[in-house]
Amino acid sequence: MAGVRKLDLEESLELGPNWRHACHALLYAPDPGLLFGRIPLRYAVLMQMRFDGRLGFPGGFVTLQNESLEDGLNRELGEELGDAAAAFRVERADHRSSRTVSDRCVVTHFYVKRLTLEQLAAVEIGAPHAKDHGLEVLGLVRVPLYTLRDGVGGLPAFMENTFIGTAREQLLEALQDLGLLKSGSVLRL
C-alpha cells in the first residue's frame, strides 16, 4: 500500500490534530482441536467480514480528545462484538504496531489480545447480537492456520481474499511474531 509508514506509538501520538487514529485488534486463543480428526488447529484467530466485503479486524476510529486509544478500541470492540467483549480488556501492553497512511492522514494502531478459547467462543456466539452486526460487521471468521495437502487449501487460499488497508500485512506479521504457525511451515504468498 503506497504512502504507508511504520512508526512507534509515541511518535504517532505526537502527530498533529489533522491526523485521525484507528485502532484494531487481532483476538486469538490456543485451540487443541483437530480438523477431520487429524489436522491440528493449534490456535483460533478471529477476523471479520466488513460492510465493504473486505476482511479486517474489529475496531475503528477513536477520538483522542475524548478517550485513550485503548478506551476507544474497547468501546469499538463492544459495538462490533457485543457483550462478550466486556470479559476482557485490550491494554497498552497489547499494542503491536502503528502505521501512517499519509494520503488519508490516518494512523492505524494494531493490537493483539490472547484470550481463552472459551472467551473467544463467547465472542463468536454473541457477535450476531452486537450493535453493529449486519451493518458495519457482516460476520466473524476464523483464519485457517494450516495448509492442506494440495498446498492451496487453508491459509494460502484464505490469503487470496481481499483485506482492508494493512490488515493482510498485520495478520502475517502477527502470525510470524507470535509463532502461531506450525514451526517450519513456509507461507508461499
TrEMBL record:
- Do you know which InterPro entries this protein is assigned to? NUDIX_hydrolase-like_dom_sf, NUDIX_hydrolase_dom, NudT16
Its top-level enzyme class, in one word, is: hydrolase
The UniProt entry, under CDD domains, shows: NUDIX_U8_SnoRNA_DE_Nudt16
* Pfam families for this protein: Nudt16-like
Q: Which cofactor does it need?
A: Co(2+); Mg(2+); Mn(2+)
Catalysed reactions, as listed in the record: a 5'-end (N(7)-methyl 5'-triphosphoguanosine)-ribonucleoside in mRNA + H2O = N(7)-methyl-GDP + a 5'-end phospho-ribonucleoside in mRNA + 2 H(+); dIDP + H2O = dIMP + phosphate + H(+); a 5'-end NAD(+)-phospho-ribonucleoside in mRNA + H2O = a 5'-end phospho-ribonucleoside in mRNA + NAD(+) + H(+); IDP + H2O = IMP + phosphate + H(+)
Q: Which GO terms describe its molecular function?
A: 5'-(N(7)-methylguanosine 5'-triphospho)-[mRNA] hydrolase activity; IDP phosphatase activity; metal ion binding; nucleotide binding; phosphodiesterase decapping endonuclease activity; snoRNA binding
Listed EC numbers: 3.6.1.62, 3.6.1.64
Q: Per UniProt, which keywords does this protein have?
A: Cytoplasm, Hydrolase, Magnesium, Manganese, Metal-binding, Nucleotide metabolism, Nucleotide-binding, Nucleus, RNA-binding
Residues of the Nudix hydrolase domain: 18-173
Q: What is its main location?
A: cytoplasm
**Lineage top rank: taxon:** Eukaryota
Q: GO CC: one term?
A: nucleoplasm
> Where is coiled-coil annotated?
none
Compartment(s) where it occurs, according to its Swiss-Prot or TrEMBL record: Cytoplasm; Nucleus, Nucleolus; Nucleus, Nucleoplasm
Q: What are the recorded Gene Ontology BP terms? A: mRNA catabolic process; nucleotide metabolic process; sno(s)RNA catabolic process
Record family assignment:
Belongs to the Nudix hydrolase family. NUDT16 subfamily.
Report the PANTHER family cross-referenced here: NUDIX T16 FAMILY MEMBER, U8 SNORNA-DECAPPING ENZYME
Oligomeric and partner information: Homodimer.
Name under which the protein is recorded = U8 snoRNA-decapping enzyme
Originating species: Pteropus vampyrus (Large flying fox)
